[in-house]
Amino acid sequence: MSDPKIPADFLWGAAAAAYQIEGAANVDGRGESIWDRFSATPGKVRSGESGAVACDFYNRFPDDIGLMEELGLDAFRFSVSWPRILPEGRGHVNPAGLDFYDRLVDALLESEIEPFLTLYHWDLPQALEDEGGWRARSTAEAFVEYAAVVAERLGDRVRNWTTHNEPWVVAWIGHEMGRHAPGLRSEAAAVAVSHHLLLSHGLAVPVIRAAAPDARVGIVLDLWQTYPASDSPEDTAAALRVDGEHNRWFLDPVFRGEYPDDLPERNAIVAPLIHDGDLETIAAPIDFLGVNNYSRAIIAAGPEGPRPVRNPEARYTEMEWEVFPDGLRAVLVRVANEYGPAEIYVTENGASFGDVRGHDGRVHDPERTEYLAGYLDAVGRAIAEGAPVRGYFVWSLLDNFEWAEGYSKRFGIVYVDYPTLERVPKDSFYWYRDHIARSRATRSPSPATPVAAG
Ligand code: FCB
Predict the structure, then answer these.
(1) Which of 163, 166, 319 should be mutated for ligand 1, with most atoms under 8 A from CB?
(2) What is the DSSP letter of 80?
(3) Nearest to 8 by CA among 446, 454, 353
């Protein structure tokens, strides 16, 4: 099944993040991150696991790039570990940390794989957390220093930059629900964190461009379309509120320079934190929006506020996320129509299922293949409806450290046998490889960028 709506220059990719795959936590001058500290705190991560070894991507990346070549990937999305670069968060730069990403970028380019670099995928240096973390405005300034150091070193070769990955998750799961590092439980903290993350994004955009004149800069948001559980006015209002808190709280400032005005309690918390010019800074023009999407939210009104509802008819992944491909189409079209980003990349999409290695030594994961086929079809439909989607990154290349779930949730299209770190491509890996190849063979070249057939 290839899709005639996919443009010729569409990028096929896979995504991963530093703390989830690199391991090598205590080598070459890397500092401590909040995820090292959180993982070492009893009761925080399932089975007491941590990213100390993970997939050992730090040492094995040449082989993993071999897997990317076998897939025929155009692009690889990875994140840089801030504590490898600035072990104390600011000040002293660790050359060995920069050297690692230098080697990684060169190896990707050597294989003709475009690096998509994320600066912050959740591993804040612990030294900054000790000074108030993202609750403190000064962390936004430290982020800009870090962004400049990385852009100055890699900006001659890396074109595609994103500042943050999923600021909603950082703010709310990390600071209000306490399920991610640093494990706080305070609505006021979450709101402050969200503002400082957004501010740091806006401050970093021109700094990255100054250091890397060819850079294309964006931000990655986790956008889940919300659906009311019924037509009742109460459920409709509840769904709108969740949409505001989760999606528009980030989209509105980035694209319009304002927080959504239908969330008065939130606005009251954030107002004193907004300095003159902050909202203009946050709305710095970006080149593309990254959308991470796995599922949708069905919301009903409840006595204590909006609550999620389960769909009894649907299939759910091991994360308890409903498989609902049309939610991705809907969110892409909606974002395109309401916010007009120049370009969109689906920067994460994928599924966790209970994969096992069979007697034949292989991993048969038909549910994942079915999931990916459904969601890729939805991407094609979004493009047909006018959404400027330029690429798709499957989450994830490898099974990896799934945050508070430890290694219990496997999202890879490549199975990792953790005791030996052996990589075993799953059936979905071969399906994705063939899908990419078919799409290249059949799609018609776009008029603007003729490409050789074949
Ligand atoms: C996203 C994260 C990513 C991974 C997937 C499953 O929220 O960005 O690191 O954990 O979920």
Answers:
(1) 166
(2) -
(3) 446
Q: Which atom of ligand 1 is least distant from the CA of 409?
A: 6
- Cβ atoms of residues 147 and 77 within 8 Å: no
For the stretch 378-434, pLDDT in tens is 999 999 999 999 999 999 999 999 999 999 999 999 999 999 999 999 999 999 999
d(CA 352, CA 140): 33
Nearest one of 370, 357, 353 to 416, comparing CA atoms? 357
Residue 316 pairs with which residues in a beta bridge? 322
Please state the atom number of ligand 1 nearest to the C-alpha of residue 169.
7
- 289, β-bridge pairs: 219, 344
Start-end of H helices in 310-426: 325-339, 366-384
Catalytic residue list contains 166 = yes
Global pTM? 0.97
Active site residue 348: yes
How far is residue 111's CA from residue 82's CA, in Å, rounded to a whole number?
Answer: 25
Q: Which residues line ligand 1 (CB under 6 A)?
A: 17, 20, 165-166, 169, 222, 292, 348, 395, 402-403, 411
In Å, what is the CA distance from 313 to each residue of 293, 322, 323, 452? 21, 10, 11, 46
Catalytic annotation, pick one of 22, 322, 348, 402: 348
Cα–Cα distances in angstroms (integers) from residue 68 to residues 78, 113, 292, in the given order? 13, 8, 20
Over the stretch 340-375, which tens digit does the pLDDT of each residue have? 999 999 999 999 999 999 999 999 999 999 999 999
Q: Which residues pair with 322 in a beta bridge?
A: 316
* Ligand 1 centroid, distance to 8 Cα (angstroms): 28
Give the residue whose CA is nearest to atom 4 of ligand 1: 402
396: cis peptide before it, omega within 30°?
Answer: yes
**What is the rounded CA–CA span in Å between residue 454 and residue 444?**
11
Give CA angle at 131 (125, 252), nearest 5°. Answer: 75
- At 43, list the tokens: 């009761």
